[in-house]
Known about the structure:
Number of strands: 12
Strand content: 5-15%
Radius of gyration: 18 Å
CATH topology of the largest domain: Oxidized Rhodanese, domain 1
Number of helices: 10
Structural class: alpha/beta
Amino acid sequence: MTLQLDSLIESADLANHLGNLNLKIIDGSWHLPKANRDGRQEFEKEHIPGAVFLDLDEFSDQDSELPHTLPSEEYFSSKVGELGIDNESWVVVYDSTGLFSAARIWWMFRTFGHHKVSLLNGGLPKWKSEGRELARGSQKVDPVKFDAVLEPGLVVDWEATKLTSQNEAAVILDARPAERFAGEVQEPRPGLRSGHIPHSKNLPFMDLLEGPYRMMISEDNLKELFQRSEILQNKEIVCSCGSGVTACILALGLHLTGHDNVKIYDGSWTEWGAREDLPIETGN
């Protein structure tokens, strides 16, 4: 049976399709080092039935000095195929926070040409709150062939971002908390300057989430939020954050409201804030 799901689905939608051979579920839980949590260990203890675990750091560029940047097409193809996912699979990604690292994985699949991918709203916390079935351990997966084809228009580097900051027809959105954007506090990663990319706007990713399960706010509320931020439908948008994870939450919200001209600055503030040759601003 052909499977087609929305970009953002609810736990009831996923439950109705469990057992579909075309459905592939990914637990993409990743946590900041200070959280002192191990996503893989937690997956072994409990996960949604049929899910496989995707280690975000393992699926990123192993040669980059920056955290979890995009790997090559060949590397991504190989790693995804090892999970038993092919180009006909419909992928549903979730995480154990509600909506956090799963957004990055959703964006990675789309950036590598696989648009048959959805995010589970509220993730594992909401699934568990509804008393739904859980599994333990991990299952053996037979590798298959997956072909990734990069869509270069969805990702930018520091040079393109610098040009965007000088372009009045475009906007850079920074997903970090307001105090980090303003340069009022030190960055959590050592060695980074405080502040933001010149002419960028602050839209903290938590403004797009609500409730104890960190669910995406409604489409109407997203539209209102973007209107208040003066984000016009025809503008090119570049999303940035600390290291390219929560910027993807902004990209998801924009996608849900019809903004498709959206790019991720992959190096984000981890790169920009470390480079003394790049300008910064402080304040709001």
